[in-house]
Amino acid sequence: MSARKFQRQLAAFSTKVEADVEDAIGEAILETGVRIIERTPVDTGRARGGWQTTIGSAPSAAEPDRDPGDARGELEQAARSFQLGDEVHISNAVEYIGILEDGNSAQAPQGMVKVTASEWPAIVEAAVRRRRR
User: Fold this and answer.
1) In angstroms, rounded to a whole number, what is the distance separating the alpha carbons of residues 2 and 66?
2) 55: which strand partners?
3) Separation of alpha carbons 10 and 25, rounded Å
4) Dihedral through CA 9, CA 10, CA 15, CA 19, nearest 10?
């Protein structure tokens, strides 16, 4: 095999690995966000709809009273567009989100983010495993 052919094969392999890693991380971001959103206690739906997902920088302010479906759609878009090197922010600026995270709701006594953050390694591992198939 010539050195040039080997270089092309290596470049193709590198491109494939990078794409697989991006896909796995995007999948893990989506699963993480979905778990956080779904674990958010619901009374009026405001806290659940308050989740915002951005790439690059955190949102500067809460969006007024969004539907929880909008939060999920925004998360799905961010997960699909993720590229290596991107910084992804999943945040919620609803004024009482900290109270909910601290477990002051029977619907989420352990919070939402803390529980999901502890699951991050398993979420990533599962996403990588699915890529190996």
Assistant:
1) 58
2) 88
3) 22
4) 100
pLDDT (tens digit per residue) in 96-112: 999 999 999 999 999 99
d(C-alpha 105, C-alpha 31), whole Å? 23
Of 61 and 3, the structure prediction assigns the larger pLDDT to 3
Comparing CA positions, the residue from 114, 90, 116, 107 lying closest to residue 45 is 107
- Yes or no: say if 131 and 26 are a contact pair by the CB < 8 Å rule: no
Structure tokens given for 27:
């999948």
Say if CB 91 and CB 50 are below 8 A apart. Answer: no
d(CA 20, CA 92): 29
- Asked whether the predicted pLDDT for residue 125 surpasses 70, the reply is yes
Confidence of residue 59 (pLDDT cuts 50, 70, 90): confident
Count Cβ atoms below 10 Å from residue 111 Cβ, excluding itself: 20
- State how far the Cα of 13 lies from the Cα of 44, in Å rounded to an integer: 49
Q: Which two tokens stand for residue 100?
A: 């909910």
